[in-house]
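Lab notebook, bench 4. The sequencing result for the construct came back, and we need a structural model before the next group meeting so we can plan mutations. Quick request posted to the team channel:

Model the 3D structure of this chain.
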Amino acid sequence: MFVSKSQVYAFLLLTLLASQQSCSTHSPLQPPIPEQARETEGAEASDSVDATSFPEIAEVEQEATEPQQETRIVPPLSETKIVPPLSIVPAEKKNPPESDLAAPEKDQASSKTVYDTTLFARTFEMSSYSGWQYRQNGQSKVVGFEFSNHGGNRILPHRYAIEKNLFFSRDFQFRFDDRARQDIHLNISDWAPSRDRQFRLSEIMNSVMLFFPRRYLPAITNSRDRAIVTLPTGEKVAFDAGTYEILGGVFAEAPVDLNPDRAARKFPGVHYTGKGLVIRADSRGKDPRIGTMAMITTGSPDADCKKGAACNQCRVPSKDLWDQNSAVRFRFSTDEEFGRYLAARCGFGIPEGGPDIIMASPLKQEARAGARKLNEAEE
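Done. Here's the predicted structure in token form:
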């Protein structure tokens, strides 16, 4: 076969072109022309749906984006249960132990004097309240309380000032050793100076008082601006919480006698005016229960009695009522036993009665009127 020269050249040229096309890389991307760009944007826009064109879709989207609101079904009024509001009850304040009114825990007190008591102070937030002191024994039981009028008032014009050696005072001390009925008593002491302005223990004017019937141990509590003391009879006495002047109740009070002559000075002007029975003994500078005479007075004399003052008063030696040595205890641990003594010795007994013996405190001016009568009688 004869091949011409021109055919050979044509074949070689075609082969060269084919080899160049197979070995070349892909051509670079060219930026789209404006028409192509507009078409692309249109395609992307077609992926998002126009909400205005489809209102039902708009509502679904709004429900998905907005917070859902709770649907409440209100029952008919007849089926509605009314729940009362919660009432907040304040925590009840616990009374101090000396404020709890209680019966004696036993009749007899120890025959020995045991010095195991400790004195504590009871204070209050009110600066005008003087507070009081209470006494606890070795078993942490309250066996007494006490307080004082330290002057600057109608009962005692002069003021107590220990830094100046001025001991003007009227002291009240309620004692009930062993929390027993036997020896419940009140000590009252008036302090006044002698002519040389010295205060001497030998010149303290002392009084002791016992109250019957002995139903309760004495108790003390605060009520507004007053300190209220409950006696063994259940009767009450109101004191000023700041000065401890007697304001009402079954006590009447006269001022402290400041006579510089100790022989002429009177004993504490505190007198029982209740319906029970009281024993009182007085002494200067020593224990009134030893070597003295005691006055027994009933506040409820027999209406048919015609013996005058003897109907409600009886004077007896203190040795008949108290042991004269050791612990100096009252001899009668029960009211029944003492009642038999009274009937034989005085001709009257311990007033009987229930709640009627518990009296409310009278007004302040009534107490002062009673004190004025006492002053007039003593003068």
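The chain has a mean pLDDT of 80.
Will bring this to the meeting.
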